[in-house]
Amino acid sequence: AKMVIAVDMSDMIYDAMAIAKENNIDESKIVFIHGRIEDVKLPVDKVMNRFYSQK
What we know:
- InterPro entries: SAM-dependent_MTases_sf.
- By secondary structure, the chain is α+β, with helices and mostly antiparallel strands.
- 20% of the residues lie in helices and 18% in strands.
- The protein has one domain.
- The chain has one helix at residues 12-22; strands at 4-8, 30-34.
């Protein structure tokens, strides 16, 4: 992918940000958004979703 936009409304997004930084992921390649995917208005080619529940 040329660019990845990661959206999550839980605090897990901050863990993902830390992991990306630890792995020297280029900040121009991935954008992290703390919020609801329904509220994000961005031009994208594909949307991928992984549903999980926290028990």
